[in-house]
Amino acid sequence: MTSLSGVFPVLPTPFTPDNQVDEAAFRRLIDFAVDSGVDGIVFPGMASEVETLSAAERGRMVAVLGVHLAGRLPFIVGASHADPVESAARAREGMAAGAVAAMIMAPPHAGQDVAKQAHFYAAVAEAAPGIAIMLQNAPAPNGAALSPEAVAAVAAAVPAIRYVKEETLPCGQHVTRILAAAGGTLDGVMGGAGARFVLDELARGANGTMPALELADAHAALWRAWKAGDRATARAIYRDTLPLLAFQMTFRVRATKEVLKRRGLLDHTGARAAGPRFDAGDLAEIGELIETARPTMTMHPPHA
């Protein structure tokens, strides 16, 4: 498998006005990601409202992604579950649709115990042979918030773990420590946390970022500039997008969907996830923040 690097946005799950999964809108988002110049796609993840999807809905959307993507980009399937048997089943479901890796969150129930974490991942790897695993290290309460050294130790114990998505704070320091502890045995460490710390992560050796989708074109341009050694352009893109990403930190998927709607990619912004909802002032503010980020947006979707 070719080493995975670059920008891998997590696709949101669009819903119809009657709260059903909207497959047509989902295909449009896939095309937007491809056309934006990103390096791959992730689905489902927390930004996909995965916790609200039934097993049937999740499986159907993974299949839709595989068929519609048709090999245009690699995709990573989200396969997190507290039960390694269920996690492996989700990984195999992704493999059947063409996924090249499975992103699996370090389970909180195993705590900081490296042996327990390694046992969990080894069980997944045994039940889903052939797929690379990305260990997602997320903050509590959703994740186990493993120390960087524990992440490297778990990965060393389970050869199927080839990548890490690091989202515990301070992300940049943790990227440095994971890479040092892993000693070159991993294929890469990617940043998460909505790309709010992306330049620090890249400066410390991260091989990519996994943000939400709404600024996929901006993040792809930032990555290209960084790889080309054009730090000034990368920082200018970061400067223009960060206020919107900070706003998104509070409203999460609702902010993502509102931006996508205003970019002409979604007709309906309904979300199942818990969390704050916009009032009139928030809707006015997000419009201002979109205008701040607009110089970084290279794509103008035909659906607009």
UniProtKB/TrEMBL annotation:
UniProt-recorded Gene Ontology molecular function terms: 4-hydroxy-tetrahydrodipicolinate synthase activity
GO cellular component, one term: cytosol
Keywords, in A-Z order: Lyase
Gene3D superfamilies associated with the record: Aldolase class I
Keyword Lyase recorded: yes
Domain of life per record: Bacteria
SUPFAM superfamilies: Aldolase (SSF51569)
Transmembrane stretches, start-end: none
Residues the entry annotates as binding pyruvate: 210
Matches recorded under InterPro entries: Aldolase_TIM, DapA-like
Family that this chain belongs to: Belongs to the DapA family.
Protein name: 4-hydroxy-tetrahydrodipicolinate synthase
Organism: Falsiroseomonas stagni DSM 19981
